[in-house]
Amino acid sequence: MTQDQPVNSERRLLSRRAVLTTMGALPVLTATTAVVGVSGAAAATAVIDPLTLRQTIRGFGGMTHTAWIGDLTAAQRDTAFGTGEGRLGFSVLRIPVPENQADWSRDLATARRATELGATVIASPWNPPASMVETFVRGSQTDAKRLRSNMYGAYAQHLNDFNTFLRNNGVNLYGISVQNEPDYAHDWTWWTPAEMVRFLRENAGSIGTRVIAPESFQYLKNMSDPILNDSAALANVDIIGAHLYGTSFANFPYPLFKQKGAGKELWMTEVYYPNSSDSADLWPQALDVGEHIHRAMVDAEFQAYIWWYIRRSYGPMREDGQISKRGAMMAHFARFVRPGYVRIGATANPASNVYVSAYKGGNSTVVIVAINKGTSAVSQQFTIANSTASSVSSWLTDASRNVAPQGTTSMSNGSLTVTLPARSMMTFVTSVGPGPSPTPTPTPTPSGGTGQFRVTYTMNSWNNGFTAGISITNTGTSTINGWTLVFTLPSGQSITSGWNATYTPSSGQVSARNVSHNGTLAPGATIDIGFQATHTGNTAEPTAFTLNGIPCVVT
């Protein structure tokens, strides 16, 4: 690392501020009201519809760039990618692709730990190797850089080699970008839309992982439209990636992607918001981050939301390794809306300054994220359609608390009324129980079990890894307080991380024990747990499960 790299990195951030919207005067914070026992202005009912399925969520995360600001410590990695209380819950890590192979291991330690904790890793290059680059005149810039026209194939091999290097060192890249911000490249390599299309058409097909493009700095559609309009280029790209620096909410929707992007993913791969000059703990300004993520999920329908530096004064983690207020906004999504969850229908704006989105995990878990940016408390009713939910757990961030557990509240016929404190953000997690399926599906033949518990196991595998979702339903008449689910993983499979349960050991006969918020399993209730694991080629599924020693019906 050269001495001036951190300075250049921050200079890049300063130059970006010119495209960000000007901040107005910040309102003065009033005393925060309590969640329970306070009346607030009434809002329209927020109706949550688990049968209205939107985009599949791939995750929330951030970037590490060791060359510019130093690596995360071991403790900071666990804070970033762990899912328990006091953690960010990030499920995506973005790393750079160094132009020199000698530097390829620079971010490996963090990438490995993120993978162990269940996160997806993607990578973006700033420059090709120097031997592949030429300079040219671009307006007033006399030393602009671009990839040589005869080096496209070599560059594809460079990206593929980086992918192979990581795979050989225990990290399976989910995707790799062609170029970070090809349309904002004063300090790195420029690409025109035509050059990007050419590379995708002729060379990207040889890359052995998902390909991300174009990563425009401001989600400028003139960079991505040509890809969507060229069938050969589109065939070789898997993720349309975008950055949101200064992008107005009005430009978040992308009709052409909806028209032509079938089978492709749409990711927001870098941003800081609303600026890089203020402390990430400035309140209530940090609520702007909550709204920004809400808009990215609801208006833009992105499947991933990735911050710039994970650890920075304006980022989700402070330089001392503690979660900031901006980080708390991200954790309200990241900890509870896990990869594979699907955004579902929800009344997005039931009252002025109130923003609601909802997500479904597995067959039963519903997560509701609600933001109140107003200066008054709001009495908000949530109704989950076609639901037998009877209780909900919640977490709160306000001026004095960060993602603080608020305990469990009863629901009546799938409805709940709560007071959203002034200038606050809340996440609610509930089990909706059985309901009608959004599409007719064949009824599987149950196997084994006594009928008191039903287990559904869903597996999604790739290369040398997989994720597994497990739904557990109490079909008996007695409430279970504290449970342990036991099953045997097939040979060659090993758990690397999990959620909503504690898993021991990582292979062979595994015991999955409840965590604090899901230890009670009432009659008719369903809970969802899951894990990420590696395999050596055997992708068979467990065939038998017992819960508290009682055999389960497997569907």
From TrEMBL:
For this entry, list what GO says about its biological process.
carbohydrate metabolic process; sphingolipid metabolic process
Q: Which UniProt keywords apply?
A: Hydrolase, Signal
Q: Which domain of life is it from?
A: Bacteria
Q: In this protein, which residues make up the domain named CBM2?
A: 446-555
Q: What cellular component terms from Gene Ontology apply here?
A: membrane
Kindly give the InterPro entries that the UniProt entry links to this protein: CBD2, CBM2/CBM3_carb-bd_dom_sf, CBM2_carb-bd_dom_sf, GH, GH30_C, Glyco_hydro_30, Glyco_hydro_b, TAT_signal
Query: Known PROSITE patterns for this protein?
Result: CBM2, TAT
Q: Name one GO molecular function term.
A: glucosylceramidase activity
Any Pfam family hit:
Glyco_hydro_30C
Family to which the UniProt record says this protein belongs: Belongs to the glycosyl hydrolase 30 family.
> Which protein are we looking at?
CBM2 domain-containing protein
Q: Which organism is it from?
A: Acrocarpospora pleiomorpha
